[in-house]
Amino acid sequence: MEQNNLILFFMSYIFICHLIFFTLAPQAEARAFFVFGDSLVDNGNNNYLLTSARADSPPYGIDYPTHRATGRFSNGLNIPDIISERIGSEPTLPYLSPELSGERLLVGANFASAGIGILNDTGIQFVNIIRIFQQLQYFEQYQQRVSALIGEEQAERLVNEALFLITLGGNDFVNNYFLVPFSARSRQFALPDYVLYLISEYRKILLRLYELGGRRILVTGTGPIGCAPAELAQRSRNGECSPDLNQATDLFNPQLVQLLNNLNAQIGSQVYISANAFAMNMDFITDPQAYGFVTSKVACCGQGPYNGLGLCTPISNLCPNRDLYAFWDPFHPSERANRLIVERFMLGSTQYMNPMNLSTIMLLDSTTT
Ligand SMILES: *[C@@H]1O[C@H](CO)[C@@H](O)[C@H](O)[C@H]1NC(C)=O
Ligand SMILES: *[C@@H]1O[C@H](CO)[C@@H](O)[C@H](O)[C@H]1NC(C)=O
């Protein structure tokens, strides 16, 4: 009797260990992940281009596992990396990386490029960047490569079952409309009309992603761009967020949510999921101490007021503990801020994730396929 109980105990122990191993270990067939957009989600495509929009020298990457600059605009991991972590997947490789070949294609790919926007004329000062139409063309090329590897039918299935993330819009304001006083776009459009134009162009991009096979597409609105240290340094006298830029996001974000709702209704399925990046960031921007940050106004790496002027370079001021800063550089959150953001992607209420959060999506998709 004693011995039987002991055997039973060990058998269940082994069973539980297996269970833990199989639920925690990254699954070989974790769903693929595709990333499109700008510097907030670029994993290093710009390293391969002649452009000034790059993050491939120190102190970028100082807290990355390799402690090397990878092209991510972060001290460590960025938002797509942490999403990959949460779906049990390897981080997405930049599409231009020579390492992205063979079996590694099946993990997905990252097509994002720092500096780009919805419009082709956004970020022209960065010269050589992968504009969104080019990102979509690369995605078609990717699908041909995967088809050659696993067959057309399997490739289509991989794409249909994948998770997508697209982050666009911030640069259409900071690196276009508001880049210089009397910019071409600001002379052409009053702000509300510019936003209407952006939304109508974004609609085409989002529909194209659906045509190309996307069935679960996370779409982020713009964050509180007027509160970034770069804008505090240039547009704020007392440390208040820039009203001009926040007015732009106030116009843009609700119309984007409306667009996604309309597209879902038109398709008859919840393909597009809106992530309220504004609210996700505002939580720790309005009360940094509540989230363990010493400040949300001063960037860890930079120079000038709020460390918000110019770029983060080897000769910039650099804070000793990046976890205490909401902003890593004048525009981009620190890894710890990115973790707070992805936490809301995973578990957030409809205020953050509409119509549902990523943990709900993962549950739904695991039971329907
Ligand atoms: C942007 O460029 C692509 C081709 O590169 C073109 O198809 C698209 O219509 C352009 N968008 C606008 C708004 O001009
Ligand atoms: C989000 O995630 C939490 C925890 O998994 C869940 O309780 C909640 O209902 C979800 N909300 C939505 C809107 O999906």
Automatic annotation (TrEMBL):
InterPro entries: GDSL, GDSL_Est/Lipase, SGNH_hydro_sf, SGNH_plant_lipase-like. GO terms for biological process: lipid catabolic process. Keywords: Hydrolase, Lipid degradation, Lipid metabolism, Membrane, Transmembrane, Transmembrane helix. Pfam families: Lipase_GDSL. The chain crosses the membrane at residues 6-25. Gene3D superfamilies: SGNH hydrolase. The keyword Transmembrane applies. It comes from the Eukaryota. The keyword Electron transport does not apply. GO terms for molecular function: hydrolase activity, acting on ester bonds. SUPFAM superfamilies: SGNH hydrolase. Belongs to the 'GDSL' lipolytic enzyme family. This is Uncharacterized protein. It comes from Lupinus luteus (European yellow lupine).
